[in-house]
Task: structure prediction
Amino acid sequence: MTTARYIRIHENDNVVTIANDGGLPAGTMLDNGIELREAVPQGHKVALTNLSPGDVVRRYNVVIGRANTEIPKGGWVNEHRLDMPPPPQLDDLPIGNDDTVLEPLEGYTFEGFRNPDGSVGTRNLLAISTSVQCVSGVVAHAVERIRRELLPKYPNVDDVISLDHVYGCGVAIQAPDAVIPIRTLRNIARNPNFGGRTLVVSLGCEKLQADVFFPERFIPIKSGGFQRQDDNIALVTLQDESNIGFDGMIQAIMKAAEEQLVVLNQRVRTTCPVSDLVVGVQCGGSDAFSGVSANPVVGYATDLFVRAGASVMFSEVTEVRDGIAQLTARAANPEVARQLVEQMDWYDRYLGRGSADRSANTSPGNKRGGLSNIVEKAMGSIVKSGSTPIRGVIPPGERCTTRGLNFAATPASDFVCGTLQLAAGMTLHVFTTGRGTPYGLKEVPVVKVATRSDLARRWHDLMDINAGRVVDGDATIEEMGWELFRYMIDVASGRAKTCAETLKLHNSLALFNPAPIT
Ligand code: CA
Result:
């Protein structure tokens, strides 16, 4: 007979979460004397007391909702039986002035590619920026030819990739919010993995002209076209009269690419302190174990990276909105707290324009996985940020310039968040999942962490780390946090390849464009 296993996160909680694979049947006795009144799936909650309509339900010592029906002791507490509390107000929040400095973690290094501007990459990639979707088919052909015909001559270059997107034309490019997609694309091109080299392929007639895309780096000239202002950037315009037919375009891109490859091939890995890493943390396909296993493990590793002097970003506005008071209290200074509130307020209004709010975040899979609503999801999501003071706030599409823990304000959508963290300069991504997603990016390595052993077993070649061992009682959060930290350093150094890299699983860039399309 299987032992009934459950998790109670805080002593004040009046629910526990069932841990057994496959859940538990009605009549099961828990060792706390509670008998299950009905079958309860894995990851779902059981009431520890009789609940009447209006009674609060606490998990993480936080009110995650109020019962809207009679729920007996031992009954199943799910999304249908809970009403969600309103979001916390944005005025009258605790304002942090947290100057806590954790004990520095010294002596940890990785093998990275140092760039002329001092940033350090974890991979050596030729990235082809595109100024409009019209060129992407041609660029895809060129990338294939470059990979086949040119890359073998430049063995220090890991790969060639195109930075495809659907922005660039047919958009209100003067609208105030258009600055977000434009600066996102500009800053992605500066990602440390691309070695400070930028190759742009443009159509010619689009709205995102070269001097709008890269002001000061391209200047328009009288005869048409653009003059580049530094040698680290190159432009191929498909509509140029010199390009005769498809083959002419491919030849022009390959010629420009080879000039970049010659330079990129001189990059070699050197020993760098871990403080040169820029780590982005994210979750997706979350379940009730995300906040119990994988996210606390990531939070532990976040603290280790911060202690080692690295920059770490956490994100996903709708998944921290209900925990804003925790975040403002952790601000390193009042200005950081103010910027946190500013980003929350902007996002509330953005969602309001679409007649939505943060409750639109949770997916059917989240709910099947035991997360009743966004409040419960948020409390599990926020722990990825660890415990150190928040030192910086990065508006969407801007670059990370502050060492230590940063909040990068992004949507929670996996691809949009990943894209904005790339723009912020992320060189290593860690991603937790409970339901399972094959998510990956071609720009940076993505380390995937499973919340449950069942997922890690089924997806044995898709998940890099199994934090489900914490749920099983086979490892502690501290042990797994160190394991993740060490593995991430191996991945950053190129000594280890993530599952997504090995299988070449890559999601598309997805720009955050709050501005109108024309
Ligand atoms: Ca996400």
Observations:
- The chain has three domains: 1-83, 125-264, 271-503.
